[in-house]
Each structure stands twice: as C-alpha cells, then as structure tokens.
Amino acid sequence: MPSHLIVLAAGQGSRMMSDLPKVLHQVGHAPLFMHALQAGAALDPERRVLVAGHGADEVRAAAAEHDEDLVVVLQEEQLGTAHAVAQAREALQGANGDVFILYGDTPFIQPETLSMMAAARSGGAAVVVLGFEAADPGRYGRLVIEGGDLMRIVEHKETTEAERAITLCNSGVVCADAEVLFDLIDGVGNDNSSGEYYLTDIVGIARERGLRCAAVTCDESETMGINTRAELARAEAIFQARRRAAMLEDGVTLTAPETVFFAHDTHVGRDAVIEPHVVFGPGVTIESGATIRAFSHLEGCHVGARAVVGPYARLRPGAELGNDAKVGNFVEIKSAEIGEGAKINHLTYIGDAAVGEGANIGAGTVTCNYDGVFKHRTEIGARAFIGSSTMLVAPVRVGVEAMTASGSVITNDVPDGALGLGRSRQVVKEGLARKLMAKLKAAKMKRTN
Ligand code: UD1
Ligand code: CA
Q1: Which domains does the chain have, with CATH numbers?
Q2: Active-site residue 54, yes or no?
Q3: What is the mean pLDDT of residues 331-343?
Q4: How many whole angstroms from 353 Cα to the centroid of ligand 1?
Q5: Residue 448 pLDDT > 90, yes or no?
Q6: Cα of 261 to ligand 2 centre, how many Å?
Q7: Given ligand 1 and candidates 33, 51, 81, 83, which is best to mutate, with the most ligand atoms within 8 Å of its CB?
Q8: How far is the CA of 441 from the centre of ligand 1 (A)?
Q9: Confidence grade of residue 12 (pLDDT, cut at 50, 70, 90)
Q10: How far apart are CA 19 and CA 236, in angstroms?
Q11: From the CB of 105, is ligand 1 less than 6 Å away?
Q12: What is the pLDDT of residues 135-189, one digit of tens each?
C-alpha cells in the first residue's frame, strides 16, 4: 500500500517574534518543514503535500529550492487543523493507501514511530493517532482510551475536569486511509469554544460510523514542537547531539563532540578526525581518514581522503580538495579544485582557481580573482611552486613545474617549467642603516632635552 504525507505549516508562529514564517526557521541548516519531511521519508511516500498559509510565497520558494517534488497548497485562512488537511484534498485526489499528517514545526518524529503507526493501521484501526505521556499535559489534546481503543480526542479547551487529569496527549500526528480521512474531515464542524475545525474530531466521528481507532505512543521528546526562539535553540541542541552520536557510531573520531556543529547533510567518512570547535555549514563531504583540525569552518565543499584542513581554515562553497591535500591555518578557499597532495599551508586566499597536484603555495599568496565587476580564474599547474606573498592577478596561468618569485605580482602567464618574477629589483646602500639610526637617535635626544 502506498503512503502519502501531509505536512501542516500554515500557522503564523507569532511567538517566534519573526518576519520569517515559522517553518522556515532552521535546525541544522535545514528549514523545520524539511525535518518533518525527513521523518516521513522512511515511508517512501508517493505524494507529499505541504499546507502553507502565513508567508506562503516564501514557503513555496523554499520548498522549490530544497525539494522540487513537494506540492505546496494554500490555506488562505487558518480555520483549524481539519480545515488545513482539507486543503490537501485535491492534491491527494485518487490517491489510495494511507495518509500521514505531520506538523511542519515538529522536527523529531522518528521513522520507527511512523512504522508503528503503519503497523497499527494494518492491524485494522481506521484512524491511528500518535500519543505520548506528557510530563505536563498543559494545553495538549487528551486521548480518551477505553478497552484499548481510542474513543475520542478532547481539545484542552473542551475538557471536563476529569478529562484534564488524563496525561496521554495528542502529538498531532495522525494516519488514516486517504478516502476515509477526507470523508471524516467532511463531518467535522466548528461548533466549539474556538470556532475552529479540529482535526482531532475525526476520531469521535469515526467511532460513530463504527470505525475502530487506535493510539500509538512515543517518547515525549519526539513530539517537541517549536514555538519560540528558545525552543528553536533547544531543538538545535537536540539535533546536534543526535548527529554527534551518529558520527561516533559510524566511526568518526570527535575529540570534543560537544564543540562540533554539523548540518543536516554533512557526510563524514570512516576514520576521519574532527578536532574541537569545527563548524559545518550545508553541503559538506569529508572522505575517509581526513583530519579537520580545530576552529575550521566548512560549507559546500568536498575534502578528499587523508587530507588535512586547519587549524583555523575556511573552506567555502566549491572548494574541492583532492586526496592528501593540505590546507593550513588562516587559509580561505572558494570555488577551487585543489589537486592531490597540494599544499596551501598558511595565510592564503585561493578563489576561482585550479591548483594542480603536488603544487606548493607559499604563505600569503592571493588569487586576485575579482576586478570589482567580474570574477576571473587562476590556474596553477601540477608541482608548481608559488613563492610566498605572490599576488596572482587573474585571469592568469602558472604552468606545470613553474615557479613564481616571492613577493611577485603575476599579471602574465608563466609557461611550464619557467620562473615568473614580478617585483622591483633590490638596491643595497652600504652603511646607510647605521647612519640613519644614529641620526634618528640624535633627533630624539634633542626632543627629550
Ligand atoms: C494541536 C491539536 C492538539 C495537540 C497539539 C499538539 C488540534 C485541534 N489540536 O493543537 O490536540 O495536542 O496540536 O501540539 O488539532 N495549522 C495549520 N492551519 C490551521 C491550524 C493549524 O496549518 O488552521 C498547523 C500549525 O501551523 C501547526 C499545527 O497545525 O503546525 C498545529 O496547530 P496548533 O495551532 O499549534 O495546534 P494546537 O492548538 O497546539
Ligand atoms: Ca501547537
């Protein structure tokens, strides 16, 4: 049976105090709604629908950027969770199989939990709701269980005193057959104290129609929803803790795991070593046995096997380091392929460039890639030797096994095997240093007297 996902994300999230729609706030450099989708990915869903409302245009743009197969539908007015689900009706027209409803602001539902819900559906329950034992049930909807079956869900505002004592709460995640779900939604009214169409009403309606409903439970930590910046920060901490644990599990050495920050898509190979205080932006792959030394910042880059990066290095998007390459302290690399075993060890900027294998780039080298309007490329051949403090004024090419003299400003191509020398000739004045110093000291004596 195929599965489908509906992610509810129309709410404003006013407690975020933000101009950005809530589900576009990021955890691990991915918008919150992507985390909800990620949880559902294990179900291998056939159709996926995101219900947007507040900031729908921005949400639509982000969806297109991150996941072009995601269908975004609009809930113009936020009339309640059942009304939100109803907006997905057309997008799921003719779909057969189960629909899972998730919240865009609830990033930690585990794939295993959704599998348990699928199993409960196969076991004959028409509607399966994910519940949890709440430490503080507060404003959550309460699950009323009788004889092992879920009878109804009571929203906090509608509870009697006896119902408020129930600690089994509604996470919001619901699963039902597609056709049955929309039939039940049709039966939901808004005659309640909020005047909202409650999705939770479908349980009572299903029961009235003679359909069995069931609750599956998970740990409360999975159901954490993000409503405030403080909760967003806590979610980031939880995400990071999980990623660190997963990295250690997969054979990555983290000397001080709690100081390393990963993105949702960071890939690190076995036996790589990540030293303290390393930050990964999105789009980084580190191959096996590489070492990322302390205080480095990497994003959108690829680091080859056994390469060494840092300490204090910055790899920006498009940095591609070959196997065994070395990038040392205070080096920045952007949009550049660095060949196998090349060394760029100190105080250097390499941008829009190709560096051949085994090349050695001296300290303080700069690829002058930007003329204020256009970006230009620099090519450095295999085994070339770039003298310290060379300014490579792009577009320019230094050939295979070529050299540049220290302090050169290289504006013309240097052929293979040639030496490029672009600096003024040195002049030496015998004895002048001592003479000058004596003169200066005499001047100082005069002033202090
Ligand atoms: C909902 C549940 C409650 C549950 C709680 C768990 C209902 C009626 N109540 O309550 O039982 O314990 O979640 O957190 O379902 N949304 C829309 N459109 C709307 C309304 C909401 O897209 O018109 C989205 C929100 O963006 C959010 C989710 O649905 O992602 C839940 O909405 P929210 O208003 O937070 O529901 P609660 O009142 O907290
Ligand atoms: Ca909520």
Answers
A1: 3-223 (3.90.550.10), 244-420 (2.160.10.10)
A2: no
A3: 98
A4: 51
A5: no
A6: 28
A7: 81
A8: 80
A9: confident
A10: 20
A11: yes
A12: 999 999 999 999 999 999 999 999 999 999 999 999 999 999 999 999 999 999 9
Burial class (CB in 10 A: 0-12, 13-18, 19+), 374: exposed
Ligand 1 atom closest to Cα of residue 141: 11
Catalytic member of 156, 267, 346, 376: 346
| Residues 6+ positions from 10 with CB-CB distance below 8 Å | 51, 52, 53, 54, 56, 75, 78, 84, 87
- Dihedral through CA 194, CA 197, CA 200, CA 202, nearest 10? 140
* CA 38 / ligand 2 centre spacing (Å): 20
Q: Within a 10 A sphere around the Cβ of 32, how many other Cβ atoms?
A: 26
Query: Model confidence over 312-322: pLDDT tens digits?
Result: 999 999 999 99
31: preceding bond cis by omega (within 30 degrees): no
Give the ligand with the smallest distance to the CA of 156: 1
pLDDT, one tens digit per residue, over 375-398 is: 999 999 999 999 999 999 999 999
Per DSSP, 25 falls in state S
Ligand 1 neighbour 353 (Cβ under 6 A): no
Evaluate if pTM is beyond 0.90.
yes
Per-residue pLDDT, 74: 98
Tokens of 340: 């196998």
